[in-house]
Amino acid sequence: MYRVILVDDEPEVRTGLIYKIDWNRLGFDVAGEAGNGREALALLESVSPHVMLTDIRMPTMSGLELLKQCEERYPALRTVVLSGHDEFDYVKTAMQCGARDYLLKPVVRLELANLLAKLKEELDAEAAAERERRARERERLQSLPRLREQLLLEWIHHREEEGRAVLLDEAERLGMRELLDAGGRLRFLCAEYRLPEGRLGVGTADSALFRLAFRMLCRELAEEEVSWSGRVTAITDRGHPRFVYFLVRSRDEEEEERTLRPLLDRLAHGVRSLLRAEVVVGIGASEEGGRHLRRAYLSALTAWSRSRPGAVSQTIGGTEEEADDALPAGFAELERRLVQSIENGDEAAFIRQLEAALAGGKLPLRHIAATAFRVALLLEQAARKHGVDAPETKEWMLPETLWRLSSPQDAKAYLSELAFRIAEGIRAGRATNGSEVVEAIRRDIEEGYMNELGLSMMAERYHLNLTYLSELFKKQLGVTFSDYVVQVRLRRAEELLRDESMRLSDIAELSGFANASYLSSVFKKRYGLSPSEYRSRLAEPNKSHADNR
Fold it and tell me: Where is the Response regulatory domain (predicted)?
């Protein structure tokens, strides 16, 4: 039932309205009566009605003053004016003050019933839109942790500073800008479960259900422990199904230590007692500030890569000496050149850069293993970025793979073959130029502009690297993803503004903008006019036509 209040200084008029029709049958309930505007304001505060029928001429506070206050304080309220025949000038003023309609006294039963039916239809549509909006918001909140994880992984895997502008824009939208910009200590843990032989039955090495159980245990550990609440984030990567990464943030070394030791103990205890499995954890070096997330992440993975094969719980790393000693100086620049040579399809350049990374075989064996591991990671990331299906890039997740690389020659042969396969896949992918994916995303925007739309959401939906998708979208359509979304929404808003009965807040909702003020800001920036000014321009030709008749 929708609530109605009746405002008139004549009690018999209010009584007549109450008994004139069956309010409940029409979907309304008379929630209260008031004899003047001041009483009505008090009633509005207490019963929160959906509709108000009010007289214009009343003592203490007139209907016009009441309407002005309602427009400011209760913009969603539907107001209807009760008017005598000699008050039509008042009616025009009332309509300018936000009244939705008017009824002439004495009120005719059929007219009142028709008006209420019209209002109920509007209120039903508004309620349906609100339910849909809340459902979308629930869906957005449910997907937010996954989208944030994906953005963190994109930030980690993206090496080039100049390409991070897109990621920072997306971080702003997902409420993560502060994390990426903030200072303070951070450290990654790389946790992998390992199953004792026969744990899942004879001939079963792993299962999706077990992977889910491991992820849920890690998430609950990160989110529910009060002592480190808000400082530990569990991150999962679809490409690394047996792993969970913990990002640990702290103000100083002492706080970090108070978090790390209990976290490691509870993780090991949970995996052993609840899952009856073993857990191998690589502890990365501490870094300062969100700008070094990638380095912290790679440090943890590199520590993990030194683990022994087999279902035995292990904790590796955690000392600054181990982190500093792992790779040759200048390796970050070598990484950049290695990836560039793969993406350019320059196999000879890749061989030269790989030989430089391996220092011509003169490095100690543990340095060669760490270098081979990092190059294998680079190749996996390149394959994922360009959508190349190369299962061999996942082999680094099996420690025995890298343990088999007992010499620089073995590492060079293994990594070169893998790199050439990925380079070929990138060439093949560029031949199709990604037009089908971009067209599918364009259709999603055109059909779903009212919903929450983000680049990270589309990257997740189409299983693409976020920065790669950003570049691809702009290359195909000539505009960025966010600009295209705004263009589509503005076109819809422009169409809706032609209906003078629609409020700006409704137009904002129906065209996908967060609120009316944001719509006004974007609209004026694009067209040089506010929405109300645009409406006035549209009305001028009609007015001139009417004046000439």
Answer: 3-120
